Amino acid sequence: MVVTEEIGVPSWDLYELSIPCTVFGKPQPDLADTWYDLRLCGINGGEEGGAAPSGFSLRTPYSLDDLVGADTVIVPSVPDACVDEGAPMPPGLVDALRRAHAAGARMVSLCTGAFALAAAGILDGRRATAHWMHTAQLAARHPRVEVDDSVLYVDDGDVLTSAGLAAGLDLCLHLVRRDLGAHVANQLARRMVVAAHRPGGQAQFIDLSVPATDDAGLSPVLEWARERLDQPLTVTDLARRAAMSPRTFYRRLQAATGTTPLQWLLNQRLARAQSLLESTGLPVEKVGELSGLGTANNLRHHFLKQVGVSPSDYRRAFPQPDAAVPQPGPASPKSAAAVPPLPV
């Protein structure tokens, strides 16, 4: 992970810095035999740092040269002046990112880190996002980038970008899901007491006119629905359970999650199907039935559309399908600045 400010780090930037440290930095041997090897690479890595007039100071033995050869490089943020005033990127950063990308690293940005990837030309011709407060600047400054200000994150294969704050956590958990499977990502999210999976296409914009107490009131009915994914469920069923009219339930769920009730159900059922494919040897027809997706053809249709591969191809990425406990994907990450590549 790139640390662009080592002396006088603003307190508001610590959140983006801490997300990859929390997700990738602590081994989870009970979830996966081989975890990630996270290295913080500073602009002045290995040098003695001075005193910070304000904020915090960080010291790391790794420098930008260590980005080259990494499996994945994460840029969590860049200095405010680079975004607000158009100041140049920290010395050596753009060149190091280009070299890492040319060497085959998976490139990831959180929030304003997208400005660094864009400055390096890595986002040219690609769809990307950042915090909605900065997407207009990103688009104006880098017209060759297809900026989408309405999503939580964009997965473009070997280049991934996210919006700010909590969306960065969504993207990091998405990387774990890609690398080690839905079960590992879900268990890690549970330990972090956060939502297991918010799809990247979910809207950044949440209707804040809905009181938080109303949003919290949705939790029991959503948990009730998760326990009955194998049963027919309609918006009317969920609204009745929540003691709301269907119109009110639709509006409140969309305001709280950024998606419609039917799309929310589909996302939950796909997550259940992924877990069953990873952890059991059940026939595809049974997986479709238990996840609530119905027939095997219907499961294949939604899996291809949302996940990008067929259920059978997805299952082949996970060894020992008959094991009672879900197994992580086949990953043996080498020393890296952040995360190993998606297993092939």
Automatic annotation (TrEMBL):
Keywords: DNA-binding, Transcription, Transcription regulation
CDD domains per the UniProt record, alphabetical: GATase1_AraC_1
Location of region: Disordered: 315-344
One Pfam family matching this protein: HTH_18
Entry GO MF terms: DNA-binding transcription factor activity; sequence-specific DNA binding
Record carries keyword Transcription: yes
Compositional bias ranges of the Low complexity kind: 332-344
Domain HTH araC/xylS-type: 219-317
Protein name: AraC family transcriptional regulator
Annotated organism of origin: Streptomyces alboflavus
Lineage: Bacteria, Bacillati, Actinomycetota, Actinomycetes, Kitasatosporales
